[in-house]
Amino acid sequence: MLLDRSRQSLTSCKTVLFLKSRAKVEEDYGRNLQKLAQHTLKSMDRPNPGHQSTQQVSWQRLVEAHETLASNRMKFSITLSEMSDFLSTYVKSKEAIRRKLRDTEQRYQKAIEESESLLEKARAKYEAQCGEWERLLLKTGKPDGALASAATSASGATHSSSSAIAKTKNVGNAVSGIFGKHKGSTQESLERMGQEAGVKAKVANEAYKRLLQQTNSMRRDFYDVQLPKILASVMGLIEEVDQFLKFSLGKYAYTYESAILADAITLKPMDGAGLPGMVEMIGEIDSKADLDAYLMATAKHGGRINRASIPYKEYEMSTIARLYASPKRIFGVPLDAQLERDQQQVPLIIVKCADAVEAFGLQNEGIYRQSGQSSQVNKLRNEFDLDAEVVDLQVNSYISDINNVTGVLKMYLRELPGGLIPVAQHGIMLSYFPVEDLEPGVAASADAAATMHHYDRDQDLGLAQKISGMANAIRSMPPPNRNTLAYLLAHLDKVQAFQEFNMMNSENLSIVFGPTILPAGNNPANAAVDIRRSAKVVRFILDNRRAIFDAI
Fold first, then answer.
1. CB-based contact 229:97 (threshold 8 Å)
2. Cβ atoms 510, 535 nearer than 8 A
3. CA distances in angstroms from 76 to 23, 27, 31, 263, 268, listed in the order given
4. For the chain, which has fewer Cβ within 10 Å, the N-terminal or C-terminal residue?
5. How many degrees, rounded to 5, is the angle at CA 466 between CA 464 and CA 469?
6. 209-260 pLDDT, tens digit each
7. 406, 411, 417, 419: CA torsion to nearest 10
8. CA-CA distance, 430 to 166, in Å (whole number)?
9. Per-residue DSSP letter, 312
């Protein structure tokens, strides 16, 4: 019952939930009011202090008072939160003590019940052994000396009434059963059996008395010593929890009153504080004086009117507008024309995209194979088509998805008139990888190009002959194409150096750039074969880049 009462007291302490919720309400109110006040102060016109109107001064002080109210509520919220946390910790600790006291009481009760159960079994066994011994004694008709006297005294001391009833009840059955059940037994056999039964009865008697003494000892210890201690501890717990709850509620009431009083003093300071309240702030506004001050300041700083003719002033366009007016296009513009116009050795779009990839994308899995967002790629294309010189790819909006940068680079190469490798060198390079050398059984389609197998560098022509032939073909290119190809391949070589991370080896890179650098012919039937052959050319050049360009 007292444990139930202690649980009721601890349940009453669940006001911690109210305090926690109230703290959240006050915190939200204080933060919102503070945010509103700060936003209002920032949006106010703030001229020089000497030129502020009475309305501006009063309004500013009024908003600052709201900021103080918000601060008061935030402090009140912090106090409530601390009280809630402390009360929650206290309740948890006292609940643990209550559970410990309850478990201790239940443990003693269980031990006593188990001991009483064992005692009942020992008593039943003792009475059964005594009954059997009694039956044999009646059958032999002779006392059993010391055993009989011991058993009689023990039996009389502990179960005189129960034995007498059992004896009266079972004498007829025992005597009548003697001659029916043991007709052939001799007198000596009966005496021996009686002695054995007497010994068993004595052993059962000793066990019964021992358990009886143990059980009574446990009961006395529990009811006389342990239970009073447990009850005293529970009573102390109830009193402590009730007093603590009363103290906490009193503290909450005091804190709440203090918060309300702080708000009241903010709205209406006490006499002698020398600070105006909200009503006094509004009363200090003098609209007529504000208007007079404004007119005087305007007249003082207005100056004379300039009556001279207004001169013509040419409009200065912004940089971006000038770019739109006269863009420096690169997409779809022949390579030699744009490099001559921009005074560059390599197109800036390739240089800037390569630098961005080498800085932020070398370890990106599938670099150049993954596609960017079409809207972002088109946006980059438009910016480069205005003026590649002003595009900055190092900003977060571009490097956040490096695939947009690689996408615009591939788009530029695809739209380059005549391709990066001129038509005159197409046939020379492709001749080193004839159609007959392509693996049989692969369908001539664009999808089949992505499944090209490893080539044998020593097939048909020797490796040295291929390297020499490629070097001669590249050497014969116009300088703009040769320089741009060398720069692009050097960049792709850096990309494949990180193939452990980006999974882009020379084979994968050649699949991506082969059709871009060496576009397929005009015959659609041979498009898939041309794609595979161009990929083989790019892969061979990429795998032997240093040897080829050293020979140029």
1. no
2. yes
3. 8, 8, 12, 11, 19
4. N
5. 110
6. 999 999 999 999 989 998 888 888 888 888 888 888 888 888 888 988 988 8
7. 50
8. 120
9. P
For residues 119-139, b (16+ Cβ closer than 10 Å) or e, as one string? beebbebbbebbbbbbbbbbb
Tell the residue number behind the tokens 């358990």, with chain if given.
Answer: 211
Q: What is the DSSP letter of 47?
A: -
Residue of 378, 382, 375, 380 whose CA lies nearest to 328: 382
Contact 552, 475 (CB under 8 A): yes
Output the six-digit token pair for 184.
Answer: 């052939």
Nearest to 408 by CA among 352, 453, 462, 360: 352
Contact 134, 167 (CB under 8 A): yes
Cα 350 to its chain centre, rounded Å, is 41
- Residue 339: per-residue pLDDT: 92
84-93, 348-357, 371-380, 538-547: least confidently modelled range: 84-93
Question: Per-residue confidence at 297, pLDDT binned at 50, 70, 90?
Answer: confident
How far apart are alpha carbons 494 and 514 in whole angstroms?
A: 17
- Encoding tokens for residue 13? 């302490």
**C-alpha distances out from residue 406 to 256, 269, 387, 409, Å:** 63, 68, 18, 5
Residue 85 or 146, more confident: 85
Helix (H), strand (E), coil (C) string for 516-546: HHCCCCCCHHHHHHHHHHHHHHHHHHHHCHH
- SS3 for 81-108 is HHHHHHHHHHHHHHHHHHHHHHHHHHHH
Indicate the pTM of the whole model: 0.43
Q: How far is it, in rounded angstroms, from Cα 153 to Cα 172?
A: 24
E strand or H helix at 198, and its extent? helix 187-221
DSSP state of 224: I
Residues 433-466 pLDDT 10s: 887 666 543 333 333 333 334 444 444 447 888 9
Contact 538, 519 (CB under 8 A): no
Q: Look at the chain and count its residues.
A: 552
Mention every residue, 6+ apart, whose C-beta is less than 8 A from residue 541: 470, 474, 489, 548
